[in-house]
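Researcher: We're teaching a course module on how sequence relates to structure. For the next exercise, students receive a sequence and then see the predicted structure as C-alpha cells, so they can try to spot secondary structure elements on their own. Here is the exercise chain.
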Amino acid sequence: MSRFYSPSRAPGGHADLSLPAFRRLCHQIRQQSKRTSGTASSEAVIEMLRQLGEFIVYGDRTSDGEGGEGEVGPADLPHRDIHFDVFCEGNTLGACVELANQASSSGAKIQLLQTLSILVQNVHSQTSLFFILSNNYVNQVLETILEDRTRDADLVDAFVAFCKTLALRINSRTIQFFFADQACTYCPLFEKCLVFLYAEDTMVRTSAMAVLLHFLQLAARGGEAPEADPAAVIAGAPPLQVPEMGTARFLNMKRNRRRVAAYLVHFLTTTHLRYLEAVHGAEGLRSMEVLDDLEEALLLVEDVLMTVRPPR
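Model: And here is the predicted structure for the students to work with:
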C-alpha cells in the first residue's frame, strides 16, 4: 500500500467504519488532492475511493441511528446521514474527482465512477442529491473522464453504468443540474448517450438506449421547470432556470431531433440488414433473434415519435 494512505482497522482486523475514521479518510482525500508533487499511486487512490463508497453505504444503513455512535440528528430528522454531512465538508467530492484525474490508471477512474454511482444511489434526501449535482462535478466527470480511453472496455462499461444510474435520478426538479449552460441547450449526459448508441458492444448500446429512453419518457411527462428552484437551498449554488417544458424543448431542438432521427435510421437499417443476412443463412445468425431486435427498434421509434415532435 502506498505511503500516502493506509486504511484504518478496528480491533480484530476488520475495517474501521467509525465516524472518526471516516473523517480521517475524507481529510486524507482532500489533502492528497492538493499535492503538487509526490501524488499518490493509483492503488492508493483506488483504495481511498473504494473505502469512501463503503463508508457511504454504511452511513446510509445506519442513518436512523442504528449501529452509529450516538451522533444522530434531532427527533424531526430521524434519517439524517451524519456520514454524508461529513462528506460534504471541505468539498470532498471535488477532491475525489481531482484525485482520479491525477491518477494515470483506468482503475482509479473506474473506481471513481463506481463510488459516484454508490453515492447517487444511496442519497435519499432531495437536498443531498441537489448538493451532489449542483457543483457541476458530475458534468465534469461525464465530459473528461474518458478522454482518449474510449477503447478501454472496462472503463466504458463503468461509464455507461454510471450514466444509467444518473438517468434514474433525473426528474423535473433535478434536470436543471444536467445542463452545462444557462440556456439549457447542452447536456453532457445526453451527448455521451448519443455517442454510445453507435458502440460495437451490445450492452453498451443497450445502456445508452436506456438513457435516451429515460430522457424521452421525462419529456413525454413534460419536463417542466420545478415549482421552486432547488438550487436555492444550496448556499453559493448559482440558480440555473430550466425553461417551461425544459426537457421536451431540449429534445425538440432541431439539432437534437436530427441526431435522434439519424440514430433511428441507423438502428433500423443495421437491424434490417442483420435480418436479411439471417434469412439467407448467414452463419451465427437466427432470424427469430434478429426479429426481436427489429421489434425493439420499432418500439424505440414509437417512443421517439410520441415524444420528439416538431414544435407547433
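Model: If you want an answer key for the exercise: The chain is about 60% helix and 0% strand. The CA atoms of residues 19 and 55 lie 9 Å apart.
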